C-alpha cells in the first residue's frame, strides 16, 4: 500500500530484513568466536592432551587393523587384543620418552648453575664492540634476572608433562575401546549412510595427510637431532644429548623451529667454549645441517602431499602459539591440514581452503566413490538415447 506522503530525504535510512539478518549473523558469529576462544584457553591442558591422543590414535589405527587381520596358524588376532597391544605400546613409548626428557632436563638444570656466571660474562662480551659502558650495562641487566626462578618454572613444567602423559594414555585407551563403533555412530548421527560414508572419507583423507606429515617430520627431525648430537660430541661439548633432543623437538615447529634450535646450539657452545670462533663454527655447521635437511631432503620426502601456504603456516603458528603456547605451535600444522581439507569439500567454506593452500589449489579431487550432485541430477534428467 503506497503512502500518501513521499519519503523524507533527510530521514535516516532503515535496514531491510535481509540486512538486519546478516548483521545479526555477523554479531552472533563474533560472539561465538569469542566463546570458543575462551574455552580453548580455559581448557587448553585437556584439549592439548586430547589432540595429541587423537593424533596417536590415528597413527596406529591403520596398523592395528592390519594386525587384526593376521592369522597365526588357526589362531586369529582379535580386534580387542590388537587394541590392547597398541595401547600398551603407546604407553610404554610415551613413558620412556617422558623419562628421557626428565633425565635430560634434570641434567641441564643441575649443570646450568655451574655455567650461570660464565654465561653472564659470555653474553655480555658479545656487546664489547659497542664499548665498555654498554658491556657493563648488559652484564648488570643479565645479573638482575633471577635464574633460579626460571629453573623452578622449568621443574614445574616437568610435573605437568607427567600429568599430560597420563591423560593422553587414558584418552588413547578409551578411543581404542570405542573405535569399533565409530562407523555406526557416524551413520546414526548423520541419519544417512551416503553422507556418513562421505564424512568418513573426508576424515580418512585428513588422517592420511596428517600421518604422512608426522612420519616424514619425525624421520627428518630424528636425523637432524642425531647429526647435532654428533657435532656437539665432535666439539667435545657438554649437553650433546640434550641439544640433540631439543633440536628433534623444535624441528616439529615449521620455519621457526630450526632457526631457534640453531641459535640455541651456538649459544650453548659459546658459553662452554668461551671462544667466538668455536661458536661461529658451530653455528655454521648446525645451520648447514638445518638448511640441507630442511630445504632439500624434507621437501623431497614431503613432495606435494601438503600444499600449505607458508604465510598461512606463520599465521597458524602465531594463533595457536598465542592460544596454547608452545604445544599449540607443534599442533598448528596438523590442525591447519584438517581445516583445509574440510573447507575444500564444503562449497561455502572453499574460499578459506584456497587461502590456506600454497598455489590456491586445495584438494580438489573427488573422494573415492563420490559423485558430484550436479552431474547426478543431469544424468537423471537427460533423455535416454
Could you explain how this protein is built, in words?
The protein is mainly alpha-helical. Among the domains are: 211-303; 307-369, no CATH class. It is built from 15 helices and two strands. The protein has helices spanning 17-42, 44-68, 79-112, 116-125, 132-143, 147-178, 182-190, 193-234, 240-250, 256-273, 276-302, 310-324, 326-344, 350-356, 373-381; strands at residues 71-72, 75-76. A hairpin with a 2-residue loop joins strand 1 (71-72) and strand 2. The model is unreliable at 365-385 (pLDDT under 50).
Structural class by SSE content: mainly alpha
- Major β-sheet strand ordering: 1-2
Which sheet architecture does the biggest sheet show? 2 strands, antiparallel
- Put simply, the count of helices is 15
Radius of gyration: 27 Å
Number of beta strands: 2
Helical percent range?
A: over 70%
Which segments are poorly predicted (pLDDT under 50) over 5 or more consecutive residues? 365-385
Helix and strand pattern: HHEEHHHHHHHHHHHHH
Mean pLDDT: 78
Question: Gap between N and C termini, in Å?
Answer: 53 Å
Which word captures the global form?
A: globular
Fraction in beta strands = under 5%
Amino acid at each position: 500500500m503506497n503512502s500518501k506522503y513521499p519519503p523524507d530525504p533527510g530521514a535516516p535510512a532503515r535496514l531491510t530484513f535481509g540486512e538486519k539478518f546478516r548483521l545479526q549473523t555477523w554479531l552472533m558469529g563474533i560472539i561465538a568466536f569469542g566463546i570458543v576462544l575462551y574455552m580453548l584457553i580455559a581448557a587448553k591442558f585437556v584439549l592439548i592432551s586430547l589432540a595429541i591422543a587423537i593424533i596417536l590414535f590415528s597413527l596406529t589405527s591403520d596398523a592395528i587393523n592390519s594386525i587384526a587381520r593376521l592369522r597365526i596358524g588357526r589362531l586369529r588376532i582379535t580386534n580387542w587384543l590388537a587394541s590392547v597391544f597398541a595401547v600398551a605400546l603407546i604407553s610404554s613409548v610415551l613413558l620412556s620418552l617422558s623419562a628421557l626428557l626428565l633425565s635430560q632436563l634434570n641434567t641441564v638444570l643441575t649443570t646450568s648453575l655451574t655455567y650461570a656466571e660464565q654465561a653472564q660474562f659470555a653474553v655480555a662480551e658479545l656487546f664489547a664492540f659497542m664499548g665498555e659502558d654498554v658491556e657493563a650495562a648488559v652484564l648488570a641487566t643479565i645479573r638482575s634476572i633471577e635464574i633460579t626462578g626460571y629453573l623452578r618454572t622449568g621443574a614445574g613444567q616437568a610435573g605437568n608433562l607427567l600429568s599430560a602423559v597420563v591423560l593422553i594414555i587414558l584418552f588413547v585407551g578409551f578411543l581404542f575401546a570405542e573405535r569399533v563403533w565409530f562407523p555406526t555412530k557416524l551413520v546414526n548421527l548423520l541419519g544417512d549412510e551416503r553422507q556418513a560414508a562421505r564424512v568418513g572419507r573426508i576424515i580418512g583423507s585428513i588422517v592420511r595427510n596428517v600421518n604422512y606429515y608426522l612420519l616424514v617430520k619425525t624421520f627428518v627431525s630424528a636425523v637432524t637431532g642425531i647429526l647435532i648430537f654428533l657435532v656437539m660430541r665432535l666439539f667435545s661439548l657438554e649437553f650433546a644429548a640434550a641439544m640433540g633432543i631439543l633440536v628433534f623437538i623444535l624441528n616439529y615447529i615449521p620455519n621457526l623451529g630450526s632457526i631457534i634450535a640453531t641459535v640455541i646450539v651456538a649459544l650453548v657452545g659459546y658459553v662452554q667454549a668461551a671462544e667466538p670462533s668455536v661458536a661461529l663454527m658451530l653455528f655454521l655447521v648446525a645451520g648447514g645441517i638445518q638448511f640441507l635437511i630442511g630445504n632439500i631432503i624434507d621437501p623431497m620426502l614431503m613432495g606435494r602431499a601438503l600444499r600449505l601456504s607458508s604465510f598461512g603456516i606463520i599465521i597458524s603458528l602465531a594463533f595457536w602459539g598465542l592460544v596454547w603456547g608452545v604445544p599449540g605451535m607443534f599442533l598448528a600444522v596438523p590442525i591447519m591440514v584438517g581445516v583445509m581439507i574440510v573447507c575444500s569439500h564444503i562449497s561455502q567454506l572453499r574460499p578459506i581452503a584456497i587461502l590456506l593452500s600454497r598455489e590456491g589449489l586445495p584438494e580438489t579431487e573427488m573422494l573415492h566413490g563420490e559423485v558430484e550432485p550436479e552431474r547426478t541430477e543431469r544424468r537423471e534428467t537427460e533423455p535416454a538415447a
